[in-house]
Design goal:
This protein is α/β, with parallel strands linked by helices. The chain has two domains: about 160 residues, 3-Layer(aba) Sandwich (Alpha/beta knot), CATH 3.40.1280; about 70 residues, tRNA(m1g37)methyltransferase, domain 2 (Trp Operon Repressor, Chain A, Orthogonal Bundle), CATH 1.10.1270. Helices cover about 35% and strands about 15% of the residues. The protein is built from nine helices and ten strands. The strands form three sheets. The protein has a five-stranded parallel sheet, with helices on both faces. It has a three-stranded mixed sheet with strand order 3-4-7. Strands 9-10 form a two-stranded antiparallel ribbon. The longest helix has 19 residues. The model has no long low-confidence stretch (mean pLDDT about 95). The structure holds 4-amino-N-(4-chlorobenzyl)-1,2,5-oxadiazole-3-carboxamide (4FM). The site of 4-amino-N-(4-chlorobenzyl)-1,2,5-oxadiazole-3-carboxamide has 18 residues, from β5 and β7. 4-amino-N-(4-chlorobenzyl)-1,2,5-oxadiazole-3-carboxamide (4FM) binds next to β5 and β7.
Amino acid sequence: MAVRFDVITLFPELFAPFQSVGVTRRAFETKAVDVRLWQLREFAEGVYRRVDDRPFGGGPGMVMLVEPLVRCLSAIRADQQAAAAPRLPVVLFSPAGKPLTQQRVQQLAEGPGAVLVCGRYEGIDQRFIDAHVDEEVSLGDYVLSGGELPALTLIDAVTRLQPGVLHDAASHEQDSFSDGLLDCPHYSRPEVLQGLAEGDDSGAPGAEAAVPPVLMSGHHAHIARWRREQQLRITAQRRPELIDAARARGELSKQDEHFLSQLTL
Ligand code: 4FM
C-alpha cells in the first residue's frame, strides 16, 4: 500500500511544487505517495472563519484555535475510515520536537503514513497537542514561520525511498546517513578539468583538477575501500559524533579503525 500523508495547513498552495517538479512529481503521478491537503480554514466557523486568537495570559502573537483543528482531524479520520486506511499517527512540526533522522524517515517510508499538522503564528493551543498529537518532530534548531516547509521536507525524504521513484534502486543505499556516515565525494566527466586557480581573476590558466586515479582504475574492491575511507574521513572531520555512534553500534571494522587512527584531523 502506498504511503498516505494527510496535511493540515492554512497554505495548501505551498505544496504545489511537490506535484509539479522532480522525483516527487513522478511519485505523485504514479500514486507511490498519496498526499491529501486539508485547508484548515474550511473547518473554521463564522463569517470570518477565524483559526487564531490572542493568547490567554497576554503576550505577543496569536495562537491556533483548538476547535478548527479538532474538526479538521475528525474529517481526516472519517476519510481514512471510508478508505479503509489505518489510523495514522499525528505529527506536529515544532522546534520543540525530536530531531528528524534518516532512520525515522525510513520507518515512515515503510508506511502507512501520517497526519502532518503545519502550525502557523506563535503556537498551537496546547490542548490540541495533548489530546491528538502523537509525535513532535523538529527539522533543526532554528525557527520557521510555519510547519509547511518541514512537512514538504518529510514528504520529500519519504517519497524518494518509495520503490520505483528513483531511477536506480541502489542509489539511496549510498546516501549520507544510510549507513550512519556522511556520503563520499562523487566525480564525473571530464577526467581532467582545465580551470582557473580559485580566487584568481587574472585569466591565467590555473591548476588542473583531476579525478582521483583509483576511480579510473576499474578495480572495484579498491574503489569500494577508497569510498569507505572518504566517508570515514569526511564524517570524522565534520560530524565526529556520528563516528562515535557508528562505533557504538559495532559498525566500524578493524580496517576502519586503523584508517581513522592514522587520520590527522
Ligand atoms: C511551528 C511555527 C509551530 C508555528 C512553527 C507553529 C520547525 C522547526 C519550526 C515553526 N518545525 N522544525 N525548526 N516551526 O520552526 O520543525 Cl504553531
